[in-house]
Amino acid sequence: MPVSRSSPTPRPGRPRGATRLLPGLAAAAVALVLAFLIHALVPSLPAMTLAVVMGVLAANLPVTGGWTAGRARPGLDFAGKHLMRGGIVLLGLKVGIGDVLDLGWLALVLITAVVAASFGGTYLISRLFRLPPVTSLLVATGFSICGASAIGAMAAVRRIRHVDTVLPVALVTLCGTLAIGVLPLLVHPLQLSAEVFGAWTGASVHDVGQVVATAQTAGPAALAIAVVVKLTRVLLLAPVTALAGAHHRISLRPSGDDAGLPPVVPLFVLGFVAMVAVRSTGWLADGWLEAGALLQDVLLGAALFGLGSAVRIRTLLLTGGRALLAALASWLLIAVLGLAAALLIAG
User: Fold this and answer.
1) For 186-205, how does the pLDDT look when each residue is reduced to its tens digit (9 = 90+)?
2) For 44, phi and psi rounded to 5 degrees?
């Protein structure tokens, strides 16, 4: 008699496919609800920063540490990689070309110069502290453009392993949070007007949420210019990642064969550019923009929780001392460059 062939029976207790992602994604959803609630109660604490902090706590508390490293890990890694890309696409809906051009050509040149000098200076500082080239590249990208979102974009363009983004995200979150507390204390000693302080915040603080939290301490005038200056930096994400992608492609090019090479510009970066174009047309009603902003916060928040949950504080303390010093030196450099540009833009 013929022997019937059937597919092997899955082993019990080993979920497959999308089921493996559910525990981690559920944990990210719970963390996001808590982050938004805390942000609503204490607006000076950005929800995205809270998401990273909750991820770090989940990874290092005895009750949850083993779970985040075990059953929840596939879903958390999925969030840190794929949901991050979706959030970057929707980030483009916050950038309007008209708002950027209203700053004037001098401001645009100065902001571009600050980003370029910050990127190059942070990379050199990181290498002087003997950080690996990959880590130095990601730290430079996150510090100079838009924090963890830029790190995720650069990692995708250069095909950098997900695990290698953990330390740069932790550093950029730490220094951006430091700015929320430190920069407002310098307004009176430096005798800064609200407009100059806002421009300084937008030119030097890393994440969009951190910029808002810092600038709003000086009033609506500071917040208005801070957001536009910051979004101008965000707009530079597309050309910077395109240049990085082109360089990576050239360095990997085999003899006359383009097979297997990464694209110069990944689809999610093109999606970001497309969303900038859509926002700039003015076709979208405020309700759609608000919905896009909310979805972007959800995606990026889940991604940042996933990345934070991979940070082991004990390992970070043992191996990240040089990285922390490099990050603080870079933070000081960007603060000085940003202040100089702000004095010329709004002084």
Assistant:
1) 999 999 999 999 999 999 99
2) -70, -10
pLDDT given for residue 332 in this prediction: 95
Rounded Cα distance between 219 and 342, Å, is: 17
Distance CA 84, CA 35 (A): 17
Q: Is 122:332 a contact under the CB 8 Å cutoff?
A: no
- Spatial CA neighbour of 88 closest among 256, 311, 229, 271: 271
Tokens for 167, please give them: 């330390």
Q: Which residues of the chain have pLDDT under 70?
A: 1-17, 252-264, 318-319, 347
Sign, CA torsion 309/180/334/269: positive
Contact present, 332 and 80 (Cβ < 8 Å): no
E strands along 112-151, which residues?
Answer: none
Helix axis angle, 321-346 to 105-128, nearest 10°: 160
Distance CA 66, CA 73 (A): 10
- Report d(CA 338, CA 183) in Å as an integer: 12
Distance CA 257, CA 331 (A): 42
For residue 17, give the DSSP letter.
Answer: G
Which positions ≥6 away from 208 have C-beta within 8 Å?
A: 91, 94, 146, 147, 227, 230, 231, 234
Name the DSSP letter for residue 142: I
CA-based end-to-end distance of the chain: 91
Q: How many CB atoms lie within 10 A of CB 140?
A: 26
Count other Cβ atoms within 10 Å, centred on residue 10: 9
Neighbour tally for 223: CB within 10 Å: 22
**H or E element in which residue 296 lies:** helix 286-308
The phi, psi pair for 191, rounded to 5°, reads 55, 55
| Rounded-to-integer distance, Cα 184 and Cα 214, Å | 7
